């Protein structure tokens, strides 16, 4: 499954940056489609944006929908000058 | 690493429930401690609570802090009658 590739991939060359990764996995016992993961994606991104400036070009979003499991993987590269102080 | 155990563990016996898993991984290039993951935990839980009723007894939260990476794993069991309609 690609979620394992996502978290086990070899790090890129060292660089002066931080990364924040978010993974959601929604497992359903019935086969109904669900927009829960889709809905959470934008709201969680908004939560993150309250803590730091997010460069849209530095954000990778991968979503996979299966019959039983939907997964969302968000990978955010954080510039050092993009940090805000949390209130 | 335990985050892999978390996502690869054998499912429990089939039951009439759904699960939502959230994983955060914050990778720092300097060694400074960060409360980013801690801050995001409560705010993301609040986002999820807008979409469903969360039974605190059905929520597992595991946090690990390392020198370079902090991880947070949240595992939520969703009762079928706990769903709300997203606005």
From TrEMBL, chains A, B:
Keywords on record: Cell cycle, Cell division
GO process terms (BP): cell division; regulation of division septum assembly
Signal peptide: none
Gene3D superfamilies per UniProt: Cell division topological specificity factor MinE (3.30.1070.10)
InterPro entries named in the record: MinE, MinE_sf
Residue ranges that the Swiss-Prot or TrEMBL entry lists as coiled coil: none
Family from the record: Belongs to the MinE family.
Free-text function comment from the UniProt entry: Prevents the cell division inhibition by proteins MinC and MinD at internal division sites while permitting inhibition at polar sites. This ensures cell division at the proper site by restricting the formation of a division septum at the midpoint of the long axis of the cell.
Protein name: Cell division topological specificity factor
Native source organism of the sequence: Aquamicrobium aerolatum DSM 21857
């Amino acid at each position: 499954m690609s979620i394992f590739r996502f978290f086990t991939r070899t790090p890129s060359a060292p660089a002066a940056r931080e990364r924040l990764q978010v993974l959601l996995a929604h497992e359903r016992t019935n086969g109904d489609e669900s927009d829960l993961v889709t809905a959470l994606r934008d709201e969680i991104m908004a939560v993150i944006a309250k803590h730091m400036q997010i460069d849209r070009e530095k954000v990778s979003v991968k979503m996979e929908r299966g019959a039983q499991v939907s997964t969302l993987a968000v990978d955010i590269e954080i510039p050092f000058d993009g940090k805000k102080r949390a209130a």
